[in-house]
Amino acid sequence: MGVVWRAQDQVLGRAVALKELHPPQGMAAEERNVLEERMLREARTAGRLNHPAVVTVYDIVRENDRTYLAMELVDALDLSTIVQRHGPRDSVWMANVALQVLGALEAAHQAGIVHRDVKPSNIMVRPDGAVKLTDFGIAQAMDDPRLTHNGGIVGSPAYMSPDRLSGWEASPASDLWALGVTMAHAVEGISPFERTSTASTLHAVMNEPPVLRRASPALAEVIRGFLTVDVTRRLTAPQARQMLTAISQGATQVSLPHNNSGKKKGTAVKIAAVVVGIAVLAGVAFAGYQVFKPKNSTTNNAGPSTSQTSENSGEWTEAASLPVGAPLPSRRIATFGRGGDVPEWNLSGTQCAKDFLTQGSPVRSEVPCSGPHGIQLFSAATPLWDKPKDIAYPGTQWLADFTKNYCTEQFKAIEPNSKEVLGFTGLVPTQKEWEAYNDAATPGRQEVLCVLWKQDRSPLAGSLVG
Description:
Blueprint: E1 2-9, E2 14-21, H1 29-48, E3 57-63, E4 66-72, E5 77-78, H2 79-86, H3 91-110, E6 113-114, E7 123-125, E8 131-133, E9 140-141, H4 162-165, H5 172-188, H6 198-207, H7 217-226, H8 237-248, H9 283-287, E10 334-336, E11 352-353, E12 372-373, E13 375-381, H10 396-412, E14 422-429, H11 431-435, E15 448-454, E16 460-461
Parallel strand pairs: 10-14
Antiparallel strand pairs: 1-2, 2-4, 3-4, 5-7, 6-9, 7-8, 11-13, 12-16, 13-15, 14-15
Pfam family, one: Pkinase
EC number: 2.7.11.1
Transmembrane segments: 271-292
């Protein structure tokens, strides 16, 4: 919507950031008016807040049919760039950053303002550790009408809460969800819900809890508290402040404060469908899997038994057994984890690995997707995300059926954009891997994984999932 200049205030003799609204040529007058009103809103909103972690707006100027916003100049990188350049952040460092962002959000919420676009690129961190929350351009004041002339939802999909996606108004709780996503991105090095398309991103927000491997147990507790689907049970700002303060002071474990405010009947957010286009994600593929219906006869790790067909066929196949070291075929469900076809799996998000999937070989470490690699994890899902984590293993067959539908739909979003002939398959956890979910030393996984490679098994170069 514009450009930001480094400028000099000639009256007060100070450096400022000068944001210039610069809509593209040919933009409709109605859309231009919306952009201009958002810029004015940013000035009004920030002007109402007095907090060290909020960028100060000094003045607004109109000249030659242009609008300019004079703001505090912050000489710092944003959190997204820091993670991109320097890798995942330390949990204690992140706790200190989160405390400052939380303070800015609390000040906004007390003034009746919801930010609505908390994300790493809107959080600037100076070399001395001071934090600034920026871009209140789409913030929503309780007494201010929404700025979407078509009634759409404004914000970044990967950071939107399930309650917002289901049609609820933005609230302090949805800002805290976005802060939780931001913290997960910073400490894990990848955005937990970012997927290959808007539809698959929205599905991830609604159905897939983030994989937290690098976060300390204490910080993971805070992140999971923020990322609680039920708004009435979501971690509140005072609760989070207490926990983050303890982490910043060196605590390795924190307890989730008890929340008595959400015991009203009927207030839990139970979402069957999202009206923002999530149905695009092939409801047929998922319709049968939202209710847990285990099959008692398939609680082993052997996988479904069907006839063996060509790897290049569009049908899923299953081999009775493969020798150790044999390549896992395309569209053949395999098991991962303790005692599985792939005995160890350490990738998450959309990470890449050097070697191809072979029977009996672990996948322990990632390689940059920008360089040569054999396989890429292109999606993952937690089928029983809303069930207790000590729930009985649903069986390999049940998980395989879910995974075939899920990975097929996710692959459809990738295949048309690739010039290569790709193979892909799904991995489901073994029963031992599933039941080790709460193992403190080496926690197991209760998710299913979708993995792709070039059909001729030559190296891939570059990520296929954005």
